[in-house]
Amino acid sequence: MARVAESVALEFGDQLTVAKVVTRTMEGAKRYQKLAKCLGRKPPVPSILVNGNLVFDIIPGVEELRSILSAMVNARNENGN
Fold it and tell me: pTM (2 decimals)?
């Protein structure tokens, strides 16, 4: 999933950031626990969260991910954020 997310993210330049959480490290485990607390449950592995919201709990196709991220970036830009 990381490869899909990273490859699609490159298309958006500085409009979005990919943060990979590796739960085998202490830092990653702590980040995972913070995400779980925000979601109210443990996020599935693998998963993609956008702005703290679970968007994918399976590996999406490149086109599907690109479409969702494009819509989110466009909505954010329209709202002036």
Answer: 0.81
Helices 62-78 & 2-10 angle (0-180, nearest 10): 50
Q: Which residue stretches of the chain have pLDDT < 50?
A: none
Any idea which residue has 């479409």 for tokens? Answer: 67
The per-residue pLDDT for 80 is: 76
Residue 66 lies in a domain: yes
From the CB of residue 31, how many other CB atoms can be counted at a distance below 10 Å? Answer: 16
The count of structural domains within the chain is 1
* 26 domain residue, yes or no: yes
In the structure encoding, which two tokens stand for residue 69, read together? 């991220």
**Do the domain assignments include residue 80?**
no
